[in-house]
């Protein structure tokens, strides 16, 4: 098992802090202040994403998948770093944007554009706390289940999402479940088996 999200973010926070100290030591204090800010925000997210705390609501993601302007500004070092990392990772690894688990059920990573969505105007279950709903998806049915990357939603959230997805499938609407990256296949199959989805 790899390092947890909170450890990885703490490492990133430490790297930002070391860069801040390096630049401020050589007299570039004004240029170093954004690095200090990025470090402090990363430490805050690292603490909030620790399994014993597990507070994805910290980032302020709304039920409609948008972020309030204050949250976007305050957490911008974390939010924009994740978006850039997600796009770079998908480009470098060549991961498929989604996979079909069974007829009408797709899983994958954050769809940064409409071309990354499965066909058929799918209903979207968003299991991220750090990625926004793209404006082009406003016509899609949408359920936000804010969850830190590498963590699972709470059992009541899972049950609610499964029921929501089953209602959509009963109307022959495809369902797309996504997390930050393409790592949810086994979990989705387990949850939907639990609900006799298949």
From TrEMBL:
Keywords: Membrane, Transmembrane, Transmembrane helix. InterPro entries: Prot-tyrosine_phosphatase-like. It comes from the Eukaryota. The keyword Membrane applies. The chain crosses the membrane at residues 6-23, 30-53, 65-81. Signal peptide: none annotated. This is Tyrosine specific protein phosphatases domain-containing protein.
